[in-house]
Design brief:
Elements (H helix, E strand, L loop, with lengths): L6 H33 L8 E11 L5 H13 L4 E5 L14 E5 L4 H8 L1 E8 L15 E6 L20 E4 L5 H11 L5 E4 L3 H16 L15 E4 L8 H4 L1 H9 L4 E4 L5 H4 L1 H10 L6 E3 L6 H6 L2 E4 L4 H9 L3 E4 L18 H9 E4 L7 H9 L2 H14 L6 H14 L10 H6 L7
Parallel strand pairs: 1-2, 1-4, 2-3, 4-5, 5-6, 6-7, 8-9, 8-11, 9-10, 11-12, 12-13
Helix pairs in contact: 2-5, 2-15
C-alpha cells in the first residue's frame, strides 16, 4: 500500500522533527555541562580574560561595513569595546582605535570556542544561531544583542536563529513581526525589540548624497546624460539564484540591448559555483559592453547603475532605498521548511514589497529584457513606491550608529540586573505577555 503525505503535512512533520532534534541537543548539552560542573567540584570553568563592557563578534569580514559606524561611535564616546572577527584579513584589524580593540578570534570553531568563554556586559553580533550549534551563550555575558546585516524578513533565518538572543535590533518595525510570531509559536519569552535603523546604509546614503552634490547634474547614463545607460546584474548565489536559473539566456538578451552591463556575482559564487563562473567568464569576458566587478566594495557599481537586476539578494533594498532607482527581480521560489518562515502565517515581507518597487523577471519576459528595463526607467509610479516603502521599512535614517550605541551603553549601565536566558524547559512554561 502506498502512503501519500500532502506537502502541508510534510512541512509540519519536518518542522516537528527539527524541534525534537533541537530539544534533544539542548538536553544532552545541559546534562554534559552539569556533569562537568560536578566533576570540577562545582567550580566555574575558566573564562576568557577580564570582563569587557562591549564585545562585537562577526563571523566574516563582509560585515565590517555594518560594524564600522558602530565602532567609530564607540570610539567617539570613549567607550571601551572589543571587536572580534573570524576573518584574518578583516579590514577592522588595520584600524588604530584608542578605545575599541580589534582582534582576530581564530577561524571557524576556534572563534566560537573563544566566544563560548568570553566575559562581557553585552555581546553584539549579526551572526544567527546563538546557542543552537557551535556558538554557545557564555555564562559570563549579561546580554546578547542581534543586529541584522540588511533590511530583510527574519523568516529567512534558519530555524531557531534568534531564539536565544536577549535583544533584537530592527531596521524598521516590520522586522519585529516574525520575531513575535515565532516567540508565540514556540512559547518563548518576549525579547526586547529596538528600532535602530541600518548603520551601513546610513553611510552609503551619505556617500551618495555627497556624490550628487558634487556633480553638475544627475542625468541618467553619466554626466550630462552622455553615453549608454548602465544595468547592474548583482544576484545572490545557489541553485535558486538568478545566474543559475537564467544565466546565459539573460546575458545574451542583455548584450543585444544598447545598455552597458556590469556583472557582479555574489563572492560565494566563485567558491560554490566555480564551474558556472569559469564558464561565464570564458564566454563573456570583459569588453566595452560588459565588465565584471569583483571588488569588495559594491558602492561604485550601485551608484553607476540606472537599474538593478537581482533575485532574493539584500542588495535589492540597498540599491532601491539609497539610490531611489527601480529593480528587476527574478521569479525565484523559496522553500520555507528549514527556515523560521515556516512558523509564520502569511507571505514574507519581501514578497509583498518587491512588486511595488520593481518588475519581476520571468521565463516569459527574459527574452524581452530591453523592454522590461525601459518600462522600469520610465515608471514614475515605481519611484514614488520606492520612497513610500523606504519610509515604512527603514527608520532612524542618519542616526543608526548613535541608536545602536545608546542601546549598548544602556545595557552596560544596567549590567547584572537581568538573569541569564531560561533553560529550554523554562522556556516551554513561559507565558507570553503580548505580541508586537
Amino acid at each position: 500500500m502506498n502512503l501519500y503525505i500532502d506537502p502541508g503535512t510534510g512541512s509540519m512533520l519536518f518542522t516537528i522533527l527539527i524541534g525534537v532534534l533541537g530539544a534533544l541537543v539542548y538536553f544532552f548539552r545541559n546534562a554534559l555541562m552539569k556533569l562537568k560542573f560536578t566533576l570540577t567540584g562545582g567550580k566555574k570553568a575558566k573564562t576568557d580574560g577580564p570582563e569587557i563592557p562591549v564585545v562585537i563578534f562577526t563571523d566574516s569580514k563582509r560585515y565590517w561595513n555594518l560594524f564600522r559606524p558602530i565602532c567609530e561611535e564607540l570610539e567617539k564616546r570613549k567607550q571601551k569595546a572589543l571587536y572580534l572577527t573570524a576573518s584574518e584579513d578583516d579590514p577592522a584589524l588595520s584600524e588604530t582605535y584608542e578605545y575599541v580593540k580589534t582582534e582576530f578570534a581564530g577561524s571557524g570553531n576556534r572563534a566560537f570556542a573563544r566566544m563560548n568563554m568570553i566575559r562581557a556586559d553585552v555581546v553584539l553580533s549579526s551572526t544567527p544561531g546563538l546557542d543552537v550549534y557551535q556558538w554557545k551563550r557564555s555564562r559570563d555575558v549579561k546580554k546578547y544583542v542581534h543586529i541584522p546585516h540588511g533590511i530583510y524578513d527574519f523568516g529567512t533565518y534558519r530555524m531557531f536563529g534568534l531564539d536565544y538572543y536577549d535583544t533584537i535590533l530592527l531596521a524598521g518595525p516590520f522586522q519585529g513581526k516574525t520575531v513575535r510570531e515565532t516567540e508565540k509559536a514556540r512559547r518563548l519569552p518576549e525579547k526586547e525589540l529596538r528600532v535602530v535603523g541600518m548603520p551601513y546604509m546610513d553611510e552609503m546614503l551619505k556617500r551618495a548624497q555627497a556624490d550628487r552634490a558634487g556633480r553638475a547634474d544627475d542625468a541618467p547614463g553619466g554626466a550630462g546624460g552622455r553615453g549608454p545607460q548602465t544595468v547592474l546584474l548583482a544576484p545572490s548565489w545557489g541553485a535558486s539564484a538568478l545566474l543559475s536559473r537564467y544565466g546565459e539566456t539573460l546575458l545574451e538578451a542583455l548584450l543585444k540591448t544598447d545598455y552597458h552591463l556590469i556583472l557582479r556575482p555574489h563572492p560565494q559564487s566563485f567558491t560554490s559555483e566555480a564551474e558556472l563562473m569559469a564558464r561565464l567568464q570564458a564566454k563573456y569576458p570583459d569588453s566595452d559592453r560588459l565588465e565584471w566587478d569583483r571588488k569588495s566594495d559594491n558602492y561604485d557599481s550601485l551608484s553607476r547603475a540606472d537599474v538593478l537586476i537581482s533575485d532574493f539578494s539584500g542588495v535589492v533594498f540597498d540599491y532601491a532605498f539609497v539610490f531611489e532607482k527601480p529593480v528587476i527581480y527574478a521569479d525565484t521560489s523559496f522553500d520555507p521548511k528549514p527556515y523560521d518562515a515556516s512558523w509564520v502565517e502569511g507571505p514574507m515581507w519581501h514578497e509583498t514589497v518587491l512588486p511595488k518597487i520593481g518588475v519581476q523577471l520571468t521565463e516569459e519576459n527574459v527574452g524581452r529584457i530591453g523592454d522590461v528595463i525601459r518600462a522600469c526607467l520610465d515608471s514614475a509610479e515605481l519611484k514614488a513606491n520606492i520612497r513610500q516603502v523606504r519610509e515604512d521599512s527603514w527608520h532612524c535614517i542618519g542616526e543608526s550608529a548613535v541608536k545602536v550605541v545608546d542601546c549598548l551603553e544602556e545595557i552596560v549601565a544596567t549590567a547584572g540586573q537581568k538573569a541569564a536566558a531560561p533553560t529550554p524547559a523554562q522556556r516551554q512554561d513561559t507565558k507570553l505577555s503580548g505580541v508586537m
